[in-house]
């Protein structure tokens, strides 16, 4: 009788241990699945500038409000009316809160993208230069043969081609004690100017 009771107790204990191990195994699997699901849910939202484009924008992208809204769904997308030399033209502004990230400018027909102006470091530059970078960290002293003085709404600024990239322009701004309209500041002045914005244009 005692052996029978002992055998029943052993069987009960074995069932209990088996159930416990199985339960722990399932819990561990569930935890692993949860970790995998969490990892999969983390989406890379990095937007990178290169000669080929800015994130989802490239040379084939149309100037289209709906398309821009889908492409930049994490940000505010608004179509505005801008003016150049008193003439109105549409532009699409991408922003985060009060910060403007991008301004998208159309061509004359308002069908394709003419240029995109980058105004925030949330856009990562594949060339390695961020907004705020000094001129002398990008170019060697006196290297301004590919720079030109800005005009109209860019007046007082200097636009230079990014190194070895003919469809990206760097816009520099800074102090100049004796500015000359339409002229580039002397090399020693330009060295201390900083990168204010970046302009990308589709390759021609």
Report on the structure:
The protein is of the alpha+beta class and 204 residues long. The protein has helices at residues 2-41, 65-71, 187-190, and strands at 47-50, 53-54, 57-58, 76-84, 87-96, 99-106, 113-118, 123-125, 147-149, 158-162, 165-173, 194-200. The strands form 2 sheets. Strands 4-5-6-7-12-11-10-9 form an 8-stranded antiparallel β-sheet, covered by helices on one side. A hairpin with a 2-residue loop joins strand 10 (158-162) and strand 11 (165-173). The longest helix has 40 residues, at 2-41. The protein is globular, with a radius of gyration of 29 Å.
Shape: globular
* CATH level-1 class: Mainly Beta
CATH superfamily: protein yfey like domain
Mean pLDDT: 83
Distance between the termini: 96 Å
Proper CATH architecture: Sandwich
Helix content: 25-40%
What does the largest sheet look like?
8 strands, antiparallel
**Could you name the CATH topology?**
protein yfey like fold
Radius of gyration, in angstroms, nearest whole number? 29 Å
What order do the strands of the largest sheet run in, or round the barrel if closed?
A: 4-5-6-7-12-11-10-9
Number-wise, the strands total 12
* Low-pLDDT segments: 1-29
N-to-C SSE series? Answer: HEEEHEEEEEEEEHE
In DSSP terms, counting alpha (H) and pi (I) runs of 4 or more, how many helices?
3
Domains (count) = 1
Q: What class do helices, strands and sheet pairing give?
A: alpha+beta
Strand content: 25-35%
Pfam family, one: DUF1131
Keywords: Signal
Signal peptide: 1-28
């Amino acid at each position: 009788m005692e052996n029978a009771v002992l055998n029943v107790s052993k069987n009960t204990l074995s069932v209990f241990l088996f159930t416990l191990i199985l339960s722990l195994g399932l819990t561990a699997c569930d935890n692993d699945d949860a970790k995998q699901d969490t990892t999969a849910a983390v989406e890379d939202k990095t937007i990178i500038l290169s000669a080929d484009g800015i994130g989802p924008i490239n040379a084939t992208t149309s100037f289209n409000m709906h398309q821009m809204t889908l492409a930049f769904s994490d940000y505010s997308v608004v179509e505005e009316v801008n003016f150049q030399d008193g003439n109105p033209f549409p532009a699409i502004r991408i922003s985060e809160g009060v910060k403007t990230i991008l301004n998208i400018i159309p061509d004359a027909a308002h069908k394709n993208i003419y240029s995109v102006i980058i105004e925030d470091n949330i856009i990562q530059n594949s060339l390695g230069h961020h907004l705020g970078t000094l001129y002398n960290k990008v170019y060697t002293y006196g290297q301004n043969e590919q720079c030109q003085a800005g005009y109209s709404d860019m007046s007082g600024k200097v636009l230079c081609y990014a190194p070895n990239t003919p469809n990206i322009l760097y816009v520099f701004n800074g102090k100049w004690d004796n500015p000359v309209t339409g002229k580039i500041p002397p090399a020693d002045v330009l060295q201390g100017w900083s990168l204010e914005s970046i302009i990308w244009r589709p390759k021609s």
